Amino acid sequence: SINTNAQSAFEEDAVYISAGYGVGTFTKTIFDAYSSGYSGYTFKSRGPFFAKVGIASSERVEFGLNFAYSGATVQYDASPSVVGKIDWTAMSLMGRLNIHFGNSERFDPYWGIGFGYRASSWKFSYSDSNFQEDESIKSVIPLAFETTFGARYLVTKNLGVYAEFGLAKAMLQFGLTAKL
Predict the structure, then answer these.
(1) Could you tell me if 142 and 50 are in contact, meaning their C-beta atoms sit under 8 angstroms apart?
(2) SS3 (DSSP) at 153
C-alpha cells in the first residue's frame, strides 16, 4: 500500500532557510600569485558565509534570495622595514532559481542559478608613512552570478543539512537548513 500522507523533502509553498560556510575559494590562489615574490607573506580569510531563503512555487521550482560575504587580509614585507597590508571584502545579494529533480522524503537534489548585485573593495596600507597609502578600490562591475548543483538532506521533518558544488563564492558550501 502507498502512504499518501508521506511528505516530500521539497514541497510546494514550503519556505527553506539555510546558513552555511564555503571552502575552495579562488581568493587565496589570487593572493598567493600576487604575493609570491614577497617575504613575510601571511593570508587570513573570513568566510565565505552564506545565507539563503527560498519559497517553493511549484513541485519543482523554488525562487529565493542568496546573501554571501567573504573577506581576506594579506600582509607582506614591501621592503626590509615596511609591512604592506591588503584588506579585501566582497558581498553579493542575488535572486535565485532552483530546479528540483528528486521526490524523496528526506533527500532533495537541485540545480540552482543566481543573478544579482556584487560589491567588493580593496584597501592597501603600509607601516611606513613615506609609502603612499592607496584609497579603497571598489568593484568595477557590480554584477553577481552563480550556478551550483546541490542537495538538502532532512534529518528530521523540518531540519537538515545542505551542500552545493559549483561556481559561487566557494566551490563547495555546506550548512544547516530549515523547512517551514
Answers:
(1) no
(2) strand
Question: Cis peptide leading into 109, omega within 30 of 0?
Answer: no
Burial environment of residue 106 by CB neighbours within 10 A (0 to 12, 13 to 18, 19 or more)? middle
Residues 155, 159: Cα–Cα separation, whole Å: 6
Least confident of 37-51, 75-89, 126-140: 126-140
Q: Quick one: cell of 151?
A: 542537495
Q: Nearest to residue 167, comparing CAs of 90, 106, 115, 100?
A: 115
What percent of the chain is modeled with pLDDT above 70? 91
Mean pLDDT, the chain, as a whole number? 89
CA distance linking residue 177 with residue 89, whole number of Å: 25
pLDDT band at 133 (very low <50, low <70, confident <90, very high): low
Task: Tell me the residue type at 127.
Answer: S
Please list, residue by residue across 142-165, b when 16 or more beta carbons sit within 10 angstroms of its beta carbon and e when fewer do. eebebebebbbebeeeeebebbbe
- What's the Cα-to-Cα distance from 74 to each of 56, 57, 145, rounded to whole Å? 41, 43, 26
